[in-house]
Predict the structure.
Amino acid sequence: MSYIYLASPYSHPDAAVREARYAAARDTTAWMLAQRLWTYSPIVHCHDLCASAGLPTSFVFWGDYNRAMITAAESLYVLELPGHAESVGVQAEITFALRLYKPVISLAPPPGVLRRILEVTP
């Protein structure tokens, strides 16, 4: 048994946007797990580590870790939040997954998630 890697944008100069992106990834991960879709989200897993341990929030820091998790995943889902197409990290994750011949699937946010993130996204 493997898992789905959930790619979503995170880095942003505004802490409120980072927090909203985290909440969207968290809520989407919870929704996927409720559907019995075993999911790993680097944002859900690492957001608190960044906040509590002062770790960087950039893809440059997390890239090797994310690639290791993508390698073990069965597929990569892209959470279509505002900023996902411009996200350096998300685009690098997609490119890496495709190089490994992993399926890459776009995922619209579950009900309610998009509305909440649009409230804080400029």
